[in-house]
Amino acid sequence: MEYTVTKTTESGSSWLTWVSLGVMTYVYVVGELSHFLLGIVSRPMSQELHYGDHACLPNPQVPEQSPECRTLNSSSCGNLLEEDNNTTCVWDYSGLGLDYQVLAGPAFVAVFTTAGVIIGFISDKFNRKVVVTVCCGVLTLATGLTGAAMNYWQLVILRMTTSAGESAFTPACSSMISDMFHESQRALALGIFNWGIYFGYGLSYAVGNFITAANIVDMGWRWSYIVTGMMGVVATLLLFLVVKEPPRASQAEVTQQPPRITSINEFSKVIKADPADIDTEFTKIYNSKNDVSSPTGSRLTEGLLGEESGPKAVVKALLQPAVLVLALAACIRHTAGFSWAYNTQLYFLTYYPNFNIGLWVMCASIVGGSLGVAVGGFVSDRLVKKLGVKARLYLIATPFAAGVLYFPPPGCFFILLGSYVFAEMWFGVLFAVLLELVPKTVQSTSIAVFLFVMNNIGGNVPVIVDPLSHLLTYRGALYVMYPGMYLVKPTCLLAPSPVQSVLIDSGKPSTRP
């Protein structure tokens, strides 16, 4: 049997392929909106459901929110009075504390990473479009029900269910995109898909701030989750109606041909063999021809898809030195990102209570993050071929991240824009590089395991923001966990080591699609 593959050209992606990419990106938007909405509405949510720390907060009933309140304790909090004798400050739930950090991090990450590995394995074996559609429905239901939660433990359960639904999006959709697009377009397509992170994160500030403030039918923050659930219904329907499951390995066309001798050397081997061994020699010739051409013309020789599958193949792929370095850097980068994302709203409420950050953070995230990912995806296939992965490692966002915490608004948001542009160039190419390093037959599972490690570390380590804030200050803790972690990531990657050279070599042109 001989396998041939129809070669996909750079212009071969149809309009339906790009529409499907748009639908999957929208699904990712809804998932990230649901993911990060908690950090925006945590204060009103905690005040209604009674969880987390107490603090002296500006009285929302007075026109000017005083930043002095954060320096007062429980006994002095009510001593400041307005002209109408209303208290300037009130002692109430702040939305911070260990309960919040656990809800934001471990409660989400524990299920997200575990379910991601399981769903990644399922996606490698079954229809990925069906898997993503079902998971999107689960996320939609859990998000809508969060708007009806009546206590902290209901929030925990629904948060875990939401994470189980979103866990399918990256491994399954990345694998589908890899099969939909030619190698020259793949990084760009993955970059566009990753726009979902920043559109979703940015929209969470608009939805969480403005819909909560609208106080629809006196339900406040609850309508933020209800609206997000409605968006999830649309996402689920679009997945079901528009997206088609792409053939794996870019549509391998299988044709069976009898084994045939095509060289003098092969003929010589057959005629010199004993009569009893002729069949064996034919089999050897047959197997040597049983290979597959990839969509980009490279030759693959192990199985129908050219590679082994199963747990051993996953372990082998993930234990490559280059993948281990990528995992280390991704964990550090994720720790910085989550430390900031989970505390952005509460940081500005603490230090700048009079400034409404809704539109500012939304615009900085969507424009900066999306631009960084898009540019990173667009240039990766070009820069890497000339300079290797090392070319991307010099894009350091540390000074920008530090500036966000140092300068007051609105200036800090222009600095935040720069931080997103530079920091997210790394994230925009991360999965493109990972897909180059792991076999196609275990891509979904490998990505899921990679996410398991990255999110378990990056998503749980930010819990220490709370004890650090007691040891230092809230801002000081964020200095350590946000720009501090950005500084560590390029340091560990650029330090001379045998592993670094492997990573740089992995950025050279690949023979695998």
UniProtKB/TrEMBL annotation:
Top-rank taxon of the source lineage equals Eukaryota
Offer an example of a GO molecular function term for this protein. Answer: transmembrane transporter activity
Query: What is the residue range of the signal peptide feature?
Result: none
Q: Where in the cell is it found?
A: Membrane
Give the species this sequence originates from: Homarus americanus (American lobster)
Q: Which gene encodes it?
A: spns2-L
- Membrane topology (UniProt): Multi-pass membrane protein
Assigned GO CC terms: membrane
What are the residue boundaries of the Major facilitator superfamily (MFS) profile domain, all occurrences included? 23-501
Pfam families from the entry?
MFS_1 (PF07690)
Recite the UniProt keywords alphabetically. Answer: Membrane, Transmembrane, Transmembrane helix, Transport
Which regions span the lipid bilayer?
A: 15-41, 102-123, 129-153, 187-211, 223-243, 357-379, 391-407, 413-435, 447-465
PANTHER family in the record, alphabetically? LP14756P, SPINSTER
Q: What is this protein called?
A: Spinster 2-like
CDD domains per UniProt: MFS_spinster_like
Q: Hey, which family's this protein in?
A: Belongs to the major facilitator superfamily. Spinster (TC 2.A.1.49) family.
